[in-house]
TrEMBL record:
Full protein name: Cox cluster protein
Regions that span the bilayer: 53-72, 92-111
Region annotation Disordered: where it falls in the sequence: 1-46
Keyword Cell membrane belongs to the record: no
Skewed-composition ranges (Basic and acidic residues): 8-22
Highest rank taxon of the organism: Archaea
Xref: Pfam families: DUF7977
Coiled-coil segments: none
Keyword tags: Membrane, Transmembrane, Transmembrane helix
Amino acid sequence: MTNNDDSTYIHDPEAFREHAASETDEAETPRTTKAYLDSGTGPENQEFGRGGWLLVVALFFAFLVIPATILYLPHARPVIASLGLTFRDAYLVLPLVPALVLGSMAVWVAVGGRTE
């Protein structure tokens, strides 16, 4: 690992691997957690599923539909008035809806992950 001159260090990765392999008798395995491997949720077993599509729909509404609705609000004065809302109320409530939906989905996923 060192050159003839003791003041200069030269790193040799192969010598380091040989030294580490000689200290452990185990074969080198990919580094990941045991829980990930044992749970059967590895990359080959994961599916997008219903929850994934619900997330896509919620993100679509949060990033496309609600902002477009907010831009259209000045032209929708009769609709807003028929709901009993003022412009201020509408501007506060519209962004709150996707925030609540995404927050409830996060809780749903977290609780679903604990049941395993």
